[in-house]
Structure formats: C-alpha cells, structure tokens
Amino acid sequence: MDFEQITYEQRGKVGLITLNRPEKLNAWTPKMMAEMRQAMDAAVAEPSISAIVVAANGRGFCAGADISQVFAKRVEAIESGDDNADAATTAAGSRSWVDYLRTLPKPTIAAVQGAAVGIGVTQILPMDIRIAADNARFGFFFVKMGLMPELASSALLPQMVGMSRAIEWCLTGRMISGVEAKEAGLVSEVVPVDQLLERALALGETIANNPGPAMPAIRKLLINNAHNDDIAAVQRSEGAALEAAYRTPEHKEAIAAFMEKRTPNFAALAH
Predict the structure, then answer these.
(1) What is the pTM assigned to this prediction?
(2) CB neighbours of 136 closer than 8 A, spacing ≥ 6?
(3) Of 71, 126, 157, 220, most Cβ neighbours within 10 A?
(4) In terms of domains, do 44 and 121 share one?
C-alpha cells in the first residue's frame, strides 16, 4: 500500500506503521490519521499479522497537530462563519479514533522517541501498550494553545497516572521525561533509543505467539471492567468469556501440549 504521510510494512507477525513526516517532526494531520486507520485495517485483514506497532521516522514521534493544516484553517473557517469548521477533524474520523482502537481485534503498541506532544500523545493513549525511548518527552500542551485535551484524554490520562498528576501535567503544559512517564504509568518501559524499534517488534512477536482468539477477549474484559464497580457483573462477563474460551481449539491445544510436555502450536490452528 502506498501512503503519503506514513509507511506500512509487515515484520514477521507484526504490522509496522511508521509516521513519516520527519521534516515536520511528524506533525499530525487528518490525512495522517486516515492513513493510519487504512494501514491498521490492512493489518487486521492479514491473517499472519497478530500485533500492530506504531513508530515514527526522525528525531521526534509527533509534534502535535500541524498548525498550518489544522488550527489555522479551523480558525479561518470559524471566522468566516463556516458551519463545517470542524470538518478537518471529523473527516479523518478522529472523534471515533478511541472506539476504533479499543475495538480493534489486534493489539497495538506505540513506540515513542523524542517529543510526543498534544495530539501526538493523546492519539496513543487508547493504544494497548506504550513504550518509550530514553530520549522520549511527552507534553500535554493544550493549555499553551488556549485549548483543551481531546480524544478522550481527559478521562484516559487520569485513569493512567492519577487525577492530581494529570491536572498538573495539563495545567503546566511542561515536558515529561520517559522516566517520569514510566513511574506515573503512562508507558510500560523505557529503553535506549537505538533499541526502541527492536524492542517494540519483539514485544509484538511475543504477543503474536499467544492464542489469537484469547487476545481480543482479554483486551475487551480489561477495557470494559477496569472501572466497573459491579463485581458481580465483572465476574459474569469473565464467566461468559471463559465458557467461550473453553470450547476453542487453542485451549484444547494448550492442554494437549501441557500433557505431552511440548510447546503448543497455535500458529497451525490459525490457517
């Protein structure tokens, strides 16, 4: 597939999406998000891919929204009385980005180097795993632009790092190091920048070697139950998922492999 603002390729069992506007520090545009979704759809449609890694070309992950292509055009449209002033964002489906990622049947991993600010960081909050290079920096810069957080980040960020820390990060708009981000729970690990992509792909391969049907079911349980105070309802959803899992060939293969003292061959069941 040919894209203008990203690249897409398969690396083993992993679909690799790379933001590719290095001359603009990979500044976000509606087209970039639309292309990311097309690449993710392609990864989902490919049976030999089991995980998706989102990385970036150049010294920064994403410098936020491209001011000339997003903010300036929106202000101009608003001042002209254009009722479709928000069309640039809506056209790319960014308002459904969170739902799209959370219902994606294959797990997503964001690999961040350099700066990830504004929508550059909020677009990866709904992804399943975030890892950072040792030179990564995160900034919730909305206050500095006179704007508010978006892409459900006003809910997702406090859930990840706690309310007090989320408010401090958003009201100061300061840069957060990868180490601080890990301590707060925004990312799961920090690795040397020259090992970032290798680590992200290895993590994707590790995930890909597990039973395919179990992964979306586990992700759905965790996402839906994370803030559910009804423990009985949580257990009912777990029970229903388990009942379905008990009947899968993958579970039967896992039991057989254990009894036969061998490594389970889940890949053979996927074809």
Answers:
(1) 0.88
(2) 61, 112, 113, 114, 115, 116, 177, 178, 181, 187, 190
(3) 157
(4) yes
